Amino acid sequence: MKTHTSTGSLATWSGYRINPVGLVSFCVVLFWALVALFAPYLAPHSVGDMVDLDYFGPMRPGLWLGSDYLGRDMLSRIIYGTRYTVGISLAAVFIACFTGVVLGMTSAVLRGPVDMVVSRVLDAMNSIPSKLFGLMVVAAVGSSIPVLILTLSVIYIPGAYRFSRSLAVNIDTMDFMMVARIRGEKLPYLIGSEILPNIVGPVLADLGLRFVFIVLLLSGLSFLGLGVQPPYADWGALVRENIGGLPFAAPAVIVPSLAIATLTISVNLLIDNLPRKIRDRSAS
Amino acid sequence: MTNLVEIRGLTVEATTDSGRWIQILKGIDLDIAAGETVAFIGESGSGKTTAAMTLLGYARPGCRISGGTVRVDGHDMVTLSEKQRAALRGTVVAYVPQSAAAAFNPAATIMDQVIEVTRIHQLMPPDEARRRAVALFRALSLPNPDSIGDRYPHQVSGGQLQRLAAAMALIGDPKVVIFDEPTTALDVTTQVEVLRAFKAVTARRQIACVYVSHDLAVVAQIADRIMVLRHGEVQETGSVDDILTRPTHPYTKELLHAFHPDTGGRVAAAEAFATDASPLLEIKTLSAGYGPPQANGLPLALAVKGVSLQVKRGTNLGIIGESGCGKSTLARAIAGILPACNGDIQFDGRELWHSARQRSREQLRDLQIVFQHADTALNPAKSIEDILGRPLTFYHGLRGKARDARIDALMDMVRLPRSLRHRLPAELSGGQKQRVNFARALAAEPKLILCDEITSALDTVVASTIIDLLKELQRELGLSYVFISHDLSVIEAICDEIIVMYRGQAVETIIPSARQQPQHPYSQLLFSSVPKLDPTWLDTLDIDPERMRVA
After folding, report:
1. pLDDT tens column, B479-491
2. Do A183 and B391 touch (CB under 8 A)?
3. Containing domain of residue B118, as a range?
4. What does the alpha-carbon distance between residue A147 and residue A157 come to, in Å, rounded to a whole number?
5. What does the pLDDT look like over B30-56, one tens digit per residue?
6. Contacts of A10 in chain B (CB under 8 A)
C-alpha cells in the first residue's frame, strides 16, 4: 500500500511510516557503526605510523583528512577513534539504562521502604557533578577502558532510574497492575511483562539521548587527557591533541569535532523520527 | 426565518492514521425552534457529539466539516471565519461539557470562571456580571448562591459543579445551549436535581437546547423531540411520545428494549436462594478505610463501617449506593486489595486473610474481581491472546496447544470473534474490551466474581447484552456474582438480593423477587430517583433530595 498523504511523510513501508529526516540520520548512524566494526580493513595506515613529514598537514590525495600534530594520518586515527567513542559509549549506555530501568521499575512496583532507600541513594549520586565524578575516579584508579565504561555508566544510572521510575509509577496505578497483583504475580513478571512493554518506547528514546550525553562526556574526559590513553585516541582525545592546529585551520582539529557532531545529532534526530506504525482499523 | 437552528445536509469527515478521509456524519438535517429541546441519542461513536459540536462551528482535531450548512440564529457556522465563530460562542451558542470537573480550572475561583465569558466578549462590567451569576446560581437552585462563587472547583460536589458549568454557559445569554451528556457522570439522586435545574432555567429563558445523551429515560424527561443517530446517520426523528411509544426503526426498538431488561431466568437461582444453601462468602462486621491508623487502631478515613453480608452459592448479591458510599472500597476489601482493618471474611468455608498477599494461590483463583474501566484494566501493550493466556498459564499451567484451545473456548464463551485474538485492547470497542476483561476473570475458573460497576461505562444497549451474557454464563458455570453498581435497573436484572449502602453502612437488604418495598429513607430516595421512560416522571416526582441530605 503506497499512499501519498498530506501529513508530510514521504514513504510508507509495510505498514510503517518512515520520515525522511529519520532515514538520513539512520544512514549516518549506520555509517559510523560500520566504520567502528570494520576499522582495521578501512584504515589505510596504522594508528601510530608517522606518514607525513609535515605536521598539521592539509587534505591531499593519500592523506584525505590531512595529518595530525605528529604527522600521523588523520583518517586512520578517526577510523580507529570511532571504535573507542562508539564502543565505550554504547557499552556504558546499555549498562546505565539496564540498571537504571530495572531499579526504577522495581521501586515503582515495590514502593515503600525499597523505593525510599534506592531513590535517596541515587539522588545523592545525582548530586555529584558528572565531570567531577569522572575526574575523581580516574585520578583514584587510573584510566583504562573498563574503568571508563563503569564510571560513565554509574554517572548515568540515576538519570535513567528517575526517568523510568516516573513512567513506571504512572503505569503502576492502572487497574491491570492491580489485576496482576491479586492474581498473585511476582516482581519479575510485574516489571518485565506488565510494565516494560508500556514504557519501552520512551525508554528507548531516553537510551538514545543518554548515549549522546555519554559520547559528549567521554569526549570531554578525553579532551582533559583522562579518557582513552595514547597512542590510541577517541574523538575527544583527537580534538585535544590537535588543538594546537586551530590557528592553522588544520583539518586535524575540525574533522573529529565534526565526527562527534554528526553522530550525536543523528542519534538525536533518529530517536525523534523513528518509523511509526500505521494503525488504521478501517483500512481495507 | 422561524427556526433558530437550521442544519442542512451536514457532513463531517475525519482523517485516518494513513491519511484517508472518511465520513463520520453523513448528511444531517435538523431544525430547532426557540425554546425547543432536541435530544441527540445514540451509542458511543454514533456521531452525536460531533453533530452537536458543529453548532459551535467546531470539529475536533483531525476532523473537518466537509459539506452542508449549519445556520444558528442566521449565521452559517460553517463559512464563518474562526474569529467570527469565536464571537458567537458564549453569546449566541454555548456548551456544557460532560465532565464539569475537568472543564473547570482548579486554580481559579468558580466566580472568576463563570463570568469569564462576559469579560472576553465585554458584555457587561464585572460587578453586574457577578450579580447576574448569583441570580443564575439561585435559578439553578444551588446552595448558598451568594457565596458559592468564592469557592474553588474542588470545594463543591459533582452535581453542583455541573450546574455551575451550566451557569457558565448561560451567563452570556445564549440562544442555543448544547448539553453534552451533562448527567452521565452523576449519581441518580444527584441527576434528578441537575435535570430539574436545567429544565427550569432553559424553559424560563426560552433557550433552544441540544441535549446529547445515550440515556433514553433522561432524554424523555427533558426533550421535546428526539433524534436517534447511528453510524453518523439519522435513524429516526420524532417527538418524545412518538419515539417512546411508536418507534419505527429497529435500532430505536433495540434501545427501548435494553431499557426493560428481562428478569427471567433468575427463578431457579431464586429457589436456590430460598433453600438454605451454605454461604459461599460471608462477611462479618467488616471495616476498611484509608489513611494512617489512628489511636483507636482504625484508619483516618473509614469508608466501610461494619458491613456484614452473605452470598449463597449460585446466587448473586447486588450492592448499590451513590458515589463515595464505600461500595467499591468494600469490593476492594473483599478482594484483599485494600486490607480490611476489622471484621472477618469467610470464603468457601474457610477464613480468608485480609491482605491478598497472604492468601494462597487457590484462594486468589477462586475469587476474581472485574474492574469498571476495561481501558485501564487491560494492558494496552499486550494482545488479547496474551491477556487471556496469562491466568491460564499462571493458575492452570496450560501451555502451547492446550492454552490456545482454551483461549478460543473463552472467546467463544464471551461471544468474541476468534479473529480478535491478535488485536491490542485499543483496537476493540468498549463492549468488546469489557468482554475480554470478563473473560480474563473466567479464565481463572473462579467460584465468585466481584463485578465493580462493569456496565457503568457502557451504552445501554451494550450493557444489557453484557448482563445477558453474565446470566447465561452463570447458568452454564454455576458462578456467583457480587455486583456493585449505582444503576438500579442493572442490579435488579441480575441480583437475587440487594444491599443498599449509604455512608459506609449497609442500610437495607432488599429481595427483589419478594416485591419488597424499600423502607430506609435513603433507599426510597435512591429507588425513586431512577429515571423512568414516562416523560412526566420528573415533573411529578415529589421527593426532595436536599431534604434527605439534611436528614
Report:
1. 899 999 887 878 8
2. yes
3. 3-258
4. 15
5. 899 888 899 998 877 788 888 898 998
6. none
